[in-house]
Amino acid sequence: MRSPLRIIFATAASAVVMFSLAGLYTGVLARDFIASHVDSSMLRTPPNLMLVFAGYVVLAALMSVLYSTFGPFASSNVWSGVRFGWLMAVLWLMPTSLVLFGVYRFPYVALPLDFAWALVEQGIGGVIVALVVRPSGRMA
Questions:
Q1: CB-side neighbour CA atoms (13 Å) of 12
Q2: What does each C-alpha distance from 67 to 100, 112, 140 come to in angstroms?
Q3: How far apart are CA 71 and CA 82, in angstroms?
Q4: Interhelix angle 110-133/77-88, nearest 10 degrees
Q5: Exposed, middle or buried: residue 81 (CB in 10 Å: 0-12, 13-18, 19+)?
Q6: Using CA atoms, how far apart are residues 56 and 58, in angstroms rounded to an integer?
Q7: By the 8 A CB rule, do 50 and 58 touch?
Q8: What angle do CA 102, 27, 86 make, to 5 degrees?
Q9: Eight-class DSSP state of 76
């Protein structure tokens, strides 16, 4: 049986963490790369962070509901969350990135960096979801 409170808490916690990781990546780790490779006319100034956060809430809610329905995916709760997060990165970010890179003038060299960071970001988000939704790591 799914616990609605666990799903809500997993959604909130993973959304905040994935949003924060995105900020770490774009604002600190890849800041110089973005400044030198991305056409600033393609960027919203300032970015609409509420809209970005709303996107992470939707992603986190989908992850929480899907994991509570189909998880866990491995005997270790952490490994199960990582694997699930990686799957979500492949299903969510990678197709979206391909579309955006095809339409906007983003440098193609950034594509593998985005893919790699998605595995980190959604992998960690998946761990949080797994630990909150099914703390024992077993099917309910």
A1: 6
A2: 27, 26, 12
A3: 12
A4: 140
A5: buried
A6: 5
A7: no
A8: 60
A9: S
Cα dihedral 55, 33, 91, 19 sign: negative
- pTM value? 0.89
Helix residue ranges, H only, 25-93: 31-37, 49-70, 77-88
CB burial of residue 39 (10 Å; 0-12, 13-18, 19+): exposed
Do the beta carbons of residue 64 and residue 7 sit within 8 Å? yes
Question: Two tokens at 90?
Answer: 């492949």
Can you say whether residue 111 is alpha, beta or left, with left for phi > 0 and alpha for psi between -120 and 50 degrees? alpha
Q: pLDDT tens string for the chain (140 positions)?
A: 478 999 999 999 999 999 999 999 988 998 898 888 877 787 788 889 999 999 999 999 999 999 999 988 888 999 999 999 999 999 988 899 889 888 887 788 888 988 999 999 999 999 999 999 987 755 54
Residue for token digits 């906007």?
Answer: 104
